Amino acid sequence: MALHPTALVKLLPLAVLIPGAYFGRGQISLLDDDLRIILDSLPYLLCLGVVLMSLQFQRGRLLLAAISVAVFYWVVQSYLQTSLNRNTDALRAYLALSFALPVMALYLLLLPERGIWNLQGLIAALGFILLGLACIELGPWILGINDAAISYTPNLNDVYMLSKSASILAGLTALVGVVLLCIRNEEIEAALLGAILPVYIALAFLHVEYISVSMCIAASLSLAWGLLRSSYSMAYRDELTGLPGRRALNERLKMLGKSYSIAMIDVDRFKRFNDTYGHEVGDEVLKLVASRVRSIKGGGTAYRYGGEEFCVVFPRKTVEATLEPIEKIRDGIASYNMSIRNRSKRPARMKEGSRLRGATRLGSDQVSITISAGVAARSPEHPDPDSVLSEADKMLYKAKRRGRNRVAYAS
């Protein structure tokens, strides 16, 4: 299980949203009554927008999160605009929220994305609703009878209102979210964390003026941003390798200047490798090659072109400037010994397996992968990206005709 610490960069929008929402609330009192009414309704409108977009893009977890933020805001506005010391119903609502927030957030974080209009998605939504009802109905009662062991009584006389136990539970939920973000490296996890933290702040500092409206706006904006980012990744990023896909490449080619080089890279004898070891192992090969191509130096950006082909765009680079970084990638892949775990896909006869293998056999469970590459640059003969791409493809097959595991380029 690989970890992606760089996924934490996806949380950077929170560094803008939350402080902006907190300090921006101080300006709400300066608005006239009509604008204030609109602002009070803004969390509902933003959450409705997220719900509609989630339905469009089949994002069940974000849909449930948006509904939850809207319900949270409604409860705060309807029941918690009073003293908790003097109102038993308000205190019960506060206890229910302080318990439901981390529990339901944990459910959404752990839940794999199943879509909406299918049996798994509907079961996930039903489970979320039942969990929410259980937290609302049983939470205050459970917390009340366990006060001697675990105190969830809010700190009504302090600046920070949540109890220590409720804070620990919320902190553990956030920690789980961070770990899952580093494991899954997906925008939805970052969006969910971006919604949990503002709602938690609103609950912990409920006595602060306009805190609920400002933080719920921040939470809904985080969900909207995560939805847009995940939709972009779905459209422009290859799901298997994580590289930008063909659509992203086409967009990039439109923005190239007058000087650039393009490299086409292909895994040697990939079809035979797939036939010998199976598609699961073939997918691992593509992931391996993608991870190496992604790290290419020299200012190149890697894309998955399709199948076992990859494309690297070098803006403002000549062919000569690209050869060294491409050779390093080729040599690094050729010298890497890949372990084969899918033994059930091997041919029964060793001699037949050796004949079919498209990769070099090293041992009983290791093979070596090779790639070939072709490079071309913009020139009077190839004045546009499509013609350069076509020339690079011709050079790729020239490298294959010369014996594979090599780089050919247009001089």
Labels describing this entry:
single chain, alpha+beta, Alpha-Beta Plaits, 2 domains, five-stranded mixed sheet, three-stranded antiparallel sheet, 14 helices, 8 strands, elongated
Model description:
The chain folds into two domains: 5-236, no CATH class; 246-409, Alpha-Beta Plaits, CATH 3.30.70. Helix 2 packs parallel to helix 8 (211-236). The chain has 411 residues and is an alpha+beta fold. The two termini are 44 Å apart. Strand 5 and strand 6 (366-368) form a beta hairpin. The protein has helices at 12-24, 33-57, 60-79, 88-110, 119-145, 164-184, 187-204, 211-236, 246-254, 270-277, 279-294, 319-334, 350-356, 385-401, and strands at 260-267, 301-306, 309-315, 337-339, 360-363, 366-368, 371-377, 407-409.
Task: Put the structure in a nutshell.
Its EC number is 2.7.7.65. With 411 residues, the chain is α+β, with helices and mostly antiparallel strands. Helices cover 60% and strands 10% of the residues.
Furnish the topology, listing elements before pairings.
Blueprint: H1 12-24, H2 33-57, H3 60-79, H4 88-110, H5 119-145, H6 164-184, H7 187-204, H8 211-236, H9 246-254, E1 260-267, H10 270-277, H11 279-294, E2 301-306, E3 309-315, H12 319-334, E4 337-339, H13 350-356, E5 360-363, E6 366-368, E7 371-377, H14 385-401, E8 407-409
Parallel strand pairs: 7-8
Antiparallel strand pairs: 1-3, 1-7, 2-3, 4-6, 5-6
Helix pairs in contact: 1-8, 2-3, 2-8, 3-4, 3-7, 3-8, 4-5, 4-6, 4-7, 6-7, 7-8, 10-11, 11-12
